Amino acid sequence: MSRTSGLLAAAGIDKRFGANSVLRNVSLSLAPGEVHTLMGENGAGKSTLFRILAGIHQPDAGQISLDGAALDLRNPSAAYGHGIYLVPQEPALLKELSVAENMFLGMLPTRGRFPSRIDWKTIRGQAQDALSALGLDVDVRDDAKHLSIAQQQLVECAKALLRGCRIILFDEPTSPLTGREVGILFAIMRRLRGQGCTLGFISHRMEEVSEISDRVSVLRDGAVTDEVGRDGFDRARLVRAMVGREVIFDRRRVRREAQGEPVLSVRGLAHAPVFSGVDFDVRPGEILGFSGLIGSGRTEIAEAVCGLRAKSGGSVMLAGRDISTSSIGDIIEAGLVYVPEDRARHGVILPMSIRDNATAGQIGRLQRKSGILNRGREIAIANDTMHRYQVRARGIDQPAGQLSGGNQQKIVFGKWMSTNPKVAILDEPTRGVDVGAKDEIYRLIEELSAQGMAIVVISSELEELIVLCDRVIAIYGGKIAAELKGADVTAARVGAAFLGAEAH
Amino acid sequence: MNSAATATSEPGHRAKPRPRRRELREVTLLVATFVVVLGVGALRPSFMSFSNIEFMVLSSVVLGLVGISQTFVIITRGIDLSVSAVLGLSAMVFGLLSTTSSMPLWQVLPLCMAMGAVLGCLNGFLVAWLKIPPIIATLGTYSLYGGLTFIYSNGLQVDQVSPDFAAFGNGNLIPFLPVPTPVLALIAVATAAWFVLNHMKFGRNILAIGNNAAAAYNAGISVRRTLLAVYTISGALAAFAGLVFVAYTGSATATTGTGDHVELQSIAIALIGGTAIAGGRGNLAGTVIGSVFLSVVITALVFLQVPAIWYSAGEGLMILAAVTLGARRSSNP
């Protein structure tokens, strides 16, 4: 185990998915015996870069080399052959198979001549030894579905070592882990580093990054914007590299202090251990930002407020009415809507036409007495949505799936706004949307707020929060970690709160 | 995660040794089968006659062979609706050759199985290479292969197979051992299938693909070739089941197999036996016992003088009951 891995270098990597350019001329090198961390906003291309190094995706341009020798990583097996292993964000263990079999997947040893039998004894023995070496004490005969995420990640580590891999890439391993589990993972990462392994790491959490990393590269919009060694760590510098152009922050000059009675009032909302003690108010005409990392509990809080998820305690008042136990239908009727993060899954029905999508939120109101839908009204609403939200499409009968992400999002907006809500919670409203459409969506949000709607914007993009919001609440570890308003809503303050650095 | 889950999920801390859960499904099914046999036997003594028991055993061999191949297909997250049509075509080819040609049994038998393998291979090609969803691909070939039977037989039916051929259905391969040859064949096939699934790479690859085809591919498993092999085997076994059917019933018609919805029966057997419809998990012992159960239930309906128009509905109710009980158990591990 003392053999060191070589220097893994990627040079000039380009990668596009369809029309979407994900990586542009990215170069990165991972030196033996270092923990090299990638940082960057969601969608910056970190996972894609790791997946290219692990042979899952193939770059459109550029070269990957190990100790100067070019590698052809056409599939993951080829990457294993060169000692490179990716521990995926969601561990991909086969749930119905034993832990031992998972570890030897694709390389099950056999004994005897035809029909050669699988050598279960060797498999169990070696699997158990490999796990023990990592300090993981589970029965390798147990089905993988019984393991926790943390245990699955360690099994993935052991899989890498069994394949003789010395370059192990961890794609955001800590986001589903508890603090204690993170400690155990880091102890193992340090041990592997001590044995000469090269480790790649992705994390958003500043304190984790400074604890474990020897080197940090920052990606933004598919390009490397900064690279610093251990001695050069500086929060402000990393945040700046992640977020970029500060000019755009100037767009919003006035942050209003909304007056009047809160239209939505949440008190003591809890669902242990995901979130607890959540109190906040939103007033008419106000845009409230919810910042936080994925896994911070921000989406869960929003879903609980809107009745989409169970809560163990707390009250939600909408315009003076307690809706904490109301059904989803009643909540929408009462004037609270939630526009989810994952458009394709929860927001827009891709194969259906713009007309069907635009009217889906109020189909009940379009029925005539006879139960037959009022087609004329349907067309009128769809046309109105297209016009008001500037949806670029061939016509209202075009399937939503053919539109760009931004235009799909506008339809989802139109669908919910046509119910005339008092409060709208928008989860990642510009995820996967290009810059132009982003601007239009911002304008729409501001317009709706000017008409008196209270809006909550959940976002992990700093820039978005700063451009849009009157007030920002930072969620960290399921709690409200900070509240910023007025002149405090700055890139530095929001960025720090977002990464858990700004305590109450 | 609640606090109990957190306590067992810490990596350094060994979870309480989990008792290896005994799969009780086989036992439950066996008990249910015996209850039906004894109950109906008490009401109608002829149900327990040697000839009826032999009939039920032989018909469960047919179901069992198709059930085993269906189990393999379902483990891969697929489904093979064409098995009944392959069974029927093979039965027709076997029956017509036995009466109209002078080909000996040892030539007709492999010929039919090879034909089944080719038809299964086409299914595999459609699924693995052309990426057609299995339910659609095999629905198409179900009609196609069923139609070939009509074309080949020209609507004729075989009423009597030659004694040589029939001997394969109800003769004893081993002297002094009063076990019909088809039962020995089912035991051999089931044992081989169990060995493949548990002790050979091919079988483990099938399970891996059913659990997560992308992960299996990433681990270097050839997903396409494995799927092709699974559908090919499914075709060959269905053809073999057709031979057994003709040999013990002595007849074949253009709707043999498809008329009884053997494809649905085989799926039901696999599910009753404990194979997961979502793939990744299979229970061959359950499949074999399930085939006995289904054959007993179908025969019992006849003996109880249930009007024939009720057979299909009664069979359906029994399948739903068995699958519902099974589903409740498996959703509650």
Describe the 3D structure.
The complex is a heterodimer of chains A (504) and B (333). Chain A is built from 17 helices and 22 strands. With 504 residues, chain A is an alpha/beta fold. In chain A, strand 4 and strand 5 (69-70) form a beta hairpin. In chain A, helix 16 packs across helix 17 (491-498). The relative contact order of chain A is 0.11. Chain B is mostly helical and 333 residues long. Chain B has one domain. In chain B, 71% of the residues lie in helices and 0% in strands. Chain B has helices at 3-9, 25-43, 50-75, 83-100, 105-128, 134-153, 163-170, 181-199, 201-211, 213-218, 223-249, 262-272, 284-303, 311-330. In chain B, helix 9 (201-211) crosses helix 11. Classes of the chains: A alpha/beta (504), B mainly alpha (333). The interface between A and B is large, with 42 and 38 residues.
Provide tags for this entry.
heterodimer, A: 504 residues, alpha/beta, 6-stranded mixed β-sheet, 17 helices, 22 strands, 32% helix, B: 333 residues, mainly alpha, disordered N terminus
Structural class of chain A: alpha/beta
User: What kind of oligomer do you see?
Assistant: heterodimer
- DSSP helical segment count of chain B: 14
Unreliable runs of chain B = 1-22
**Fraction of residues in β-strands of chain A:** 15-25%
How many H/I helical runs of chain A? Answer: 17
Distance N to C terminus of chain A: 46 Å
Q: Helicity level of chain B, as a percent range?
A: over 70%
Q: What overall geometry of chain A do the principal axes of the alpha carbons give?
A: globular
Question: How many beta-strand runs of chain A?
Answer: 22
* Pair of chains with the largest interface and how many residues each contributes: A-B, 42 and 38 residues
Main sheet properties of chain B: none
Task: Provide mean pLDDT of chain B, rounded.
Answer: 85
Question: Into how many domains do the coordinates of chain B divide?
Answer: 1
Protein name (chain A): Ribose import ATP-binding protein RbsA 1
GO molecular function (chain A): ATP binding
Pfam families (chain A): ABC_tran
Organism (chain A): Acidocella aquatica
